[in-house]
Amino acid sequence: DVKVTQSSRYLVKRTGEKVFLECVQDMDHENMFWYRQDPGLGLRLIYFSYDVKMKEKGDIPEGYSVSREKKERFSLILESASTNQTSMYLCASRKGQGIAGELFFGEGSRLTVL
Amino acid sequence: GNSVTQMEGPVTLSEEAFLTINCTYTATGYPSLFWYVQYPGEGLQLLLKATKADDKGSNKGFEATYRKETTSFHLEKGSVQVSDSAVYFCALRNANTGNQFYFGTGTSLTVIP
Questions:
Q1: Do B99 and A105 make contact, defined as CB atoms within 8 angstroms?
Q2: Residues contacting residue A98 through CB under 8 Å, at least 6 positions apart
Q3: How do residues A40-59 score in pLDDT, each as one tens digit?
């Protein structure tokens, strides 16, 4: 069974802390994504990566950075967490560039910043 | 540009009722359209998709038809079950959007026995 695994389901951090969210996929997918999910706003793309060491900004990259050193792993980094980054974070992966290919999602990481 | 609009929730239905969740989109060309479902405490998973006009996607009793003339992709199910309680997201991907998917805001469905 294909799988996208996010390292932490629930995290509580303090304002100003550095936060790492890890995501691993076992499907050999080229593309990986980080979304943020907030009530009433749906899913908003933070960053995506289409290859190792490659990254592209999404719609809301401010306050975030990413790292992709290996094909299967995509990390989201909050350099200095703030309360407005309290949210559900969803990692996803996708194979190739075809228009019909679907996204596969992890179970999400719910981050609370105090 | 590209965007997806879906009906506001929450939606509450009795078991065995008919379900429609409306989704309309704005896009140039011929996007692929998707419905994703998020069960409580889980990530999103693909429910169904359609890649060209007049295609019908179907899965688990749910159906949606890609209507280019009305730019719609409404989700329907003839008889809902309690286990269908979830949040449903409509999404599109277009050839001119690169890797981007565009999601609606989600519609929460609760089915009561």
A1: no
A2: none
A3: 888 999 999 999 999 999 99
